[in-house]
Amino acid sequence: MRRKNNKIREAKKKEEKSGATYPALLGLDGAMQTLNQLMQQAKSNLDLISSTHTKHLWEIAQYIIKRTY
């Protein structure tokens, strides 16, 4: 029983340390769906502004979501 309680405490500490993330809250599929929705919304909003700077913002956003570690 002590081992189980220790594992639970360790998991809670790890969660508190790392914080809530979209994959932790929504699952990987849910997080990817949310990402796609937010990217579509961002692109639509940037298209409304339509300037040189928005092109750079869009390129930065795409770089961030496509990067690998």
Could you please describe the fold and organization of this structure?
The chain has about 70 residues and is an all-alpha fold. The chain has one domain (about 1-65). Helices cover about 85% and strands about 0% of the residues. It has three helices and no strands. It has helices at about 1-20, 20-50, 50-65. Helix 2 (about 20-50) packs antiparallel against helix 3 (about 50-65). It is elongated. The termini are far apart. The model has no long low-confidence stretch (mean pLDDT about 80).
Features:
about 85% helix, elongated, mainly alpha, about 0% strand, 3 helices
General form:
elongated
Largest sheet report: none
Strand content: under 5%
The SS-based structural class is: mainly alpha
- How confident is the prediction overall: mean pLDDT? 82
What is the helix/strand order? HHH
